[in-house]
Design goal:
Elements (H helix, E strand, L loop, with lengths): L1 H21 L4 H17 L1 H15 L5 H7 L3 H16 L7 E6 L5 E8 L2 E6 L4 H12 L3 E5 L5 H18 L6 E3 L5 H7 L8 E5 L2 H10 L12 E5 L5 H13 L8 E7 H17 L3 E4 L1 H6 L4 E2 L13 E7 L2 H11 L4 E5 L3 H10 L4 E4 L18 E3 L7 E3 L5 E8 L7
Parallel strand pairs: 3-4, 3-6, 4-5, 7-8, 7-12, 8-11, 9-10, 9-11, 12-13
Antiparallel strand pairs: 1-2, 2-16, 14-15
Helix pairs in contact: 1-8, 2-5, 2-6, 2-7, 3-7, 5-6, 10-11
């Protein structure tokens, strides 16, 4: 451990110095740097794809299909990454923005100013697209970033890191503002998690085991979500055709993501009409369905769902089905078994929807929309640095503003305390 501390402390110190320099960077310079990252990634797409193909091949033996999907880059995904960065570049810069301006009782002028967090460390598995997105969002908010991707994406991340270093040089910003830790040894991460002198925030993205390990080891504040046990509740007043489309998309479109639906709740008033239709479509897509006793009376060939499964995040083509007797029972089930990530209601009853939106304690609650819509890009953030299920300091998909904090600004005219 001490050896890794001595080896990595210069990296963390360089990041701190870069973060200080970035406080003086203009909004235009930061936007130009993010656009340059997008351009460099497009120009280097062939090299990125070659490196990624080698990563995927190396991970194939030991990885699930869902993990391979998260690891894999395609020309379309690289283009989507670049477009997301361009959206980030064009977003308003929050740094320096004054909020809640007013006057104190003595006449002093007071306000809160948006200011960078400082040095943000990202620790993530697979997902090489996170490398560029996290770096760009941090940079736009005047933060330096330390990025430690999984060993399975090492080649992809090295090429992306070279693209980002070149972009920073193009824009005249500190090259150490974005740094990759490209060693697979877990002890390197443990060493960095002790460097609270230099690093201000840690954001892990990956499986529950990774996140719990980071939280247990870190001296630095951590923003986290342990898992995405997301639900869709089909209400008694649902448009069943709409519900079928939402359920299919939420489960099948990309089942290995944290915002994919894991459990379906159906009101007993519509269960007999709805379940046979949607179950057949899901089975055609190779979804392994499990159900409670009430669901199995309608679909006798369902595998039984165990009590423990209601807390499960499958990250795969597996789904649990439960029939509920009321909206309140659905809300209670979600608040009891969910992971406070994303949960949706499908209904034409506005009063039921408003009750659900207010009572379900999740970072994103949805009405007539797929849980897959819980995404920084879909929310207009351009890209996201992660999805937080914490309640402090950010919650849900995190964009530029979530990588800033507030400081008080006071302007007086010789005011002194009496």
């Amino acid at each position: 451990m001490d050896d890794w501390v001595s080896r990595l402390e210069p990296l963390a110190r360089d990041a701190r110095e870069a973060a200080v320099a970035l406080r003086g960077a203009t909004a235009e310079a930061k936007a130009a740097a993010v656009r340059a990252i997008a351009r460099r990634i497009r120009e280097g797409a062939a090299e990125v794809l070659r490196a990624n193909a080698a990563d995927v091949e190396g991970a194939r033996v030991s990885s699930t299909a869902a993990k391979l999907d998260r690891l894999t880059l395609t020309p379309a995904r690289i283009e989507a990454m670049a477009k997301g960065l361009e959206v980030v570049a064009g977003l308003p810069d929050p740094v320096g923005r004054m909020e809640k301006e007013g006057r104190g009782p003595s006449g002093i002028r007071v306000a809160k100013m948006r200011t960078p967090i400082g040095v943000v460390m990202m620790i993530f598995e697979a997902r090489p697209n996170v490398t560029a997105e996290a770096a760009a969002i941090a940079l736009k908010a005047s933060n330096a970033s330390i990025l430690r991707g999984g060993s399975e994406a090492l080649r992809s991340n090295r090429v992306l890191g070279a693209c980002m270093a070149a972009a920073l040089r193009d824009a005249g910003l500190p090259e150490k503002a974005i740094q990759l830790v490209d060693v697979p040894d877990h002890a390197a991460v443990a060493a960095l998690l002790r460097m609270d002198r230099y690093i201000d925030l840690v954001i892990p993205r990956g499986g529950e085991g990774l996140i719990r390990s980071v939280v247990e080891s870190s001296r630095i504040p951590v923003i986290k979500h342990y898992k995405g046990n997301c639900h869709v509740y089909v209400d008694a007043a649902a448009d069943l055709a709409m519900a079928a489309e939402i359920v299919f998309n939420a489960k099948v479109q990309r089942p290995g993501t944290c915002n994919a639906m894991e459990h379906l709740l159906v009101h007993e008033a519509v269960a007999e009409a709805f379940l046979p239709v949607v179950a057949q479509r899901l089975r055609d897509a190779k979804v392994d369905l499990r159900g409670d006793a009430a669901a199995r009376r309608i679909l006798p060939d369902l595998a039984p769902a165990t009590d423990a499964e209601w807390d499960e995040e499958y990250l795969d083509l597996v789904m649990g089905i439960r029939i509920v007797r009321s909206l309140e029972e659905a809300i209670d089930h979600i608040n009891r078994h969910g992971s406070s990530h994303t949960d949706a209601i499908v209904t034409r009853d506005e009063a039921a929807a408003r009750r659900f939106l207010g009572a379900v304690d999740s970072a994103s609650v949805m009405w007539n929309a797929s849980t897959r819509m819980a995404d920084g890009g879909e929310y207009g953030l351009g890209a996201e640095i992660g999805i937080s299920t914490d309640k402090l300091h950010a919650r849900g998909p995190m964009g530029i503003e979530d990588l800033t904090t507030l400081k008080w600004v006071v302007i007086g005219e010789g005011h002194c305390r009496t």
